[in-house]
Amino acid sequence: MRKCGGVFASAPRHMLKLRMRIHIGSDHAGLDFKNELITHLVVNGHDVTDHGPYEFDALDDYPDFCIPCAEAVAKDASS
Known about the structure:
Elements: E1 2-3, E2 6-7, E3 21-24, H1 31-43, E4 47-50, H2 63-75
Parallel strand pairs: 1-4, 3-4
Antiparallel strand pairs: 1-2
């Protein structure tokens, strides 16, 4: 898994025949589910880039994270 600004190791690539590159983001309300989803995806061999949030902040807003995530998907032809 990649965190914007930092690098995390992915699960072994041999675990899946089809390995997907996935960009993901949420707001504070989806933080816990996003983290569970990332864990599931990485364990199953996918390459995940987390665009945030990285910690709970009740004042954050979804566009702060979904716009960079969407831009990354648009720029990344393999995602």
